[in-house]
Design a protein that fits this description.
The chain is mainly alpha-helical. It is built from four helices and five strands.
Length: 248
């Protein structure tokens, strides 16, 4: 009698393989019967409206042609469509009360007009003759700084005279004369040795080294000193500090 025991495992494996193939074919046939044909899917437009964040492009699981596409959006109600706006249109919504007309849209523009800056129309003193005074443009800057501090036109003209005498209207002027105890800067020759720029003093927030490159900044420091002391700091031989008459 032959020993057939060694053949039994091989026979069992072959039988199991045939049974598995038959089962898989049965599942595949069932799935094809249940799945709807692609033609049964709703056909939808992929037009994307810029105000609708849900209107994305149609999606596919892995972009294979065998996959059924997932529509971008569901079918819209009859008569409802999305229309894209032009790229260069900016729309503003007009709010309306309950029961009012249909919401309206319109294009809106705004214009801002600034008033012109005041100008100095008075005379410009030239203490040392022609060319020793300020130009009209520089006189305008000085006048505006003085007006901002409450000066009247007479005080503006006096400050223009002081500046002509002290610096020839040159914001870079610097007098460093130890013999006369001068370390004076800018348009109106504010003296550092007098302590004006020290901490806690009138001009502590002004940088005298910046006067040369910033005419308006220097003019403002002159107006600040005038507001506090009038013309006293420039009254040669009798210096004083007293509130200007028009500010009292």
């Amino acid at each position: 009698m032959k020993d057939t025991g060694s053949y039994l495992p091989l026979f069992g494996l072959a039988t199991l393989a045939l049974t598995s193939v038959a089962f898989l074919e049965e599942i595949s046939d069932s799935a094809e019967a249940v799945a709807p044909p692609p033609a049964a899917m709703s056909e939808v437009s992929n037009t994307v409206h810029p105000m609708n964040p849900f209107a994305l492009q149609s999606l596919s699981a892995d972009m294979h042609s065998s996959e059924v596409e997932i529509p971008a959006v569901a079918d819209l109600p009859p008569g409802i469509t999305y229309e894209p706006l032009e790229d260069d249109e900016v729309w503003i919504y007009d709010e309306i009360g309950e029961g009012g007309p249909e919401p309206a849209y319109h294009l809106e523009t705004t214009t801002t007009t600034l008033p012109p800056l005041p100008t100095w129309e008075g005379g410009i003193p030239e203490v040392y003759g022609e060319g020793s005074g300020c130009s009209r443009a520089k006189a305008n800057i000085i006048a505006r700084a003085m007006w901002d501090r409450g000066a009247n036109d007479d005080s503006v003209k006096e400050m223009l005279r002081i500046i002509s005498r002290e610096s020839l209207c040159d914001s870079s002027a610097h007098n460093d004369n130890t013999r006369t105890r001068d370390d004076s800067w800018g348009l109106c020759q504010q003296n550092n040795l007098s302590g004006w720029f020290d901490e806690g003093k009138l001009l502590e927030n002004y940088d005298r080294f910046a006067f040369a490159d910033d005419f308006a900044y220097n003019a403002e420091s002159c107006a600040v000193m005038w507001e506090e002391c009038g013309v006293g700091p420039w009254n040669y031989g009798n210096y004083y500090c007293s509130t200007p008459r028009e500010l009292r």
